[in-house]
Structure formats: structure tokens, C-alpha cells
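Q: Given only this backbone (238 positions), what sequence would you predict?
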């Protein structure tokens, strides 16, 4: 971890319009949870739909996209990344630091609101709140790594990330059964199922596949982003 890089990354994420989105989106989830609990009471099916479909299926990838791309793409777009890469700092350390900040933002603005929404909707029953928060944290980490890599590859990282979330995760991943094995959302659901009481959460991907895939995707995306940053340095020197 590099404290200077971390501080600049946090400032870049929270000091722009992204910071407003990081606050507004989870606030809407919590508001909806309060309204649903007030009108419907404690209902297991509704809690699962909101936590699995809205929180894990929409909030987490969206916040992962904002955090992951925001941690690096803005610096590449305005050219300030050159000054950062000119310092004698290993590229992998810069990448890991930025990923840590992105994961931290996802934990605070996605996993924590998921936990709070779960407690509002269903209390501590069946371990739903903690289970979905754990799934959100794991999925958010993978999303952050993937979108951090995307931010180093294209200047249209947000658009490309939205297309991935809408087409693959929401459309293909939800409606094509065979594709669910390669869905980050489904990996998070597998962890939630394992953490909750038996039968409380359903998932289509076994835990034995979800955990290795989460680790593999996170590590591979981080390594590829570090290699890409090294390439950007060489291009700048040329």
C-alpha cells in the first residue's frame, strides 16, 4: 500500500460527481427497505428479492463500476497518471493500492448498506443480512478488480462496464442457465447461501466453484491492470 496513492485515489473518487453517486445509490436502497418494511412487514420472499435482486444484482455491480473505474480512468483521461507513474514506485503496488481503495469504497457504500437494508427488512432471522452483505463484499471485490482493469484498457470504461452489467450479468446471467457459472453476481449468491441458514438463500453456482472463480478473477484482473500500467509508462516514455 502506498499512502500517497491511496489519498489521491480517495480524493479522486469522493471529490467528484462519483462521490455523490456513491452516496445516493445506497441511500435509495435503505429508503426502499424502510418503506417495504413499514408496508409489508417482515417477509422472507420480499427480503430475498430486494437483497438478492436489487442490492447484489444492481447496487453492487454499479458501485463496483463507479469505484473501480473511478480509481484509475480519470487520471488516465486527464493525463495526470503520467506524473504518478514517473515516480519510482512498482506498478503492482500502485495497482494494489488503487484496488484497495476501490474495494474499501465498495464495502462502505455497497456491502454495508446491504447489511443495514437486510437488518431493516428481516432483522437477524436466518442470517440473511450478514449473508448477503458477505456476498456483496466478495462480489464487489471482483467487480472492482474487473472494472479497474477496464479503466486501464479503454477511455470508455464506464460505458463498457454498464454494457457488461446490463447484458451479461442482468440479461445473460439471469436467463441463460449455463452462463450463470461465469456470473460474478451468482458467485456472490453462492457465498450468501453458504453463510445463511439452510434453505434461506438459493444459488445456481456451487460454493466449490464460486470461491476459486472469485479469487482467480480478482487476482488475474489485478495482475493484468498492473501490466497495463507498465505499458502506459513505456508508451509515455516513448
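A: Predicted residues:
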Amino acid at each position: 500500500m502506498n499512502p500517497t496513492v491511496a489519498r489521491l485515489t480517495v480524493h479522486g473518487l469522493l471529490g467528484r460527481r462519483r462521490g455523490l453517486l456513491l452516496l445516493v445509490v445506497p441511500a435509495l436502497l435503505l429508503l426502499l427497505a424502510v418503506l417495504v418494511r413499514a408496508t409489508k412487514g417482515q417477509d422472507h420472499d420480499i427480503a430475498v428479492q430486494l437483497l438478492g435482486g436489487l442490492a447484489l444484482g444492481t447496487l453492487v455491480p454499479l458501485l463496483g463500476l463507479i469505484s473501480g473505474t473511478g480509481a484509475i480512468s480519470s487520471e488516465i483521461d486527464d493525463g495526470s497518471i503520467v506524473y504518478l507513474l514517473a515516480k519510482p514506485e512498482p506498478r503492482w503496488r500502485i495497482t494494489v493500492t488503487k484496488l484497495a481503495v476501490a474495494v474499501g469504497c465498495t464495502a462502505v457504500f455497497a456491502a454495508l448498506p446491504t447489511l443495514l437494508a437486510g437488518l431493516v427488512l428481516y432483522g437477524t432471522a436466518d442470517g440473511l443480512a450478514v449473508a448477503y452483505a458477505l456476498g456483496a463484499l466478495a462480489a464487489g471485490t471482483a467487480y472492482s478488480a474487473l472494472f479497474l482493469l477496464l479503466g486501464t484498457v479503454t477511455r470508455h470504461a464506464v460505458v463498457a462496464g454498464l454494457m457488461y452489467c446490463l447484458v451479461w450479468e442482468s440479461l445473460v446471467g439471469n436467463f441463460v442457465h449455463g452462463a450463470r457459472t461465469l456470473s460474478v453476481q451468482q458467485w456472490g449468491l453462492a457465498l450468501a447461501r453458504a453463510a445463511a441458514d439452510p434453505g434461506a438463500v438459493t444459488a445456481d453456482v456451487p460454493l466449490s466453484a464460486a470461491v476459486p472463480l472469485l479469487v482467480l478473477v480478482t487476482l488475474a484482473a489485478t495482475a493484468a491492470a498492473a501490466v497495463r500500467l507498465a505499458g502506459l509508462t513505456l508508451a509515455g516514455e516513448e
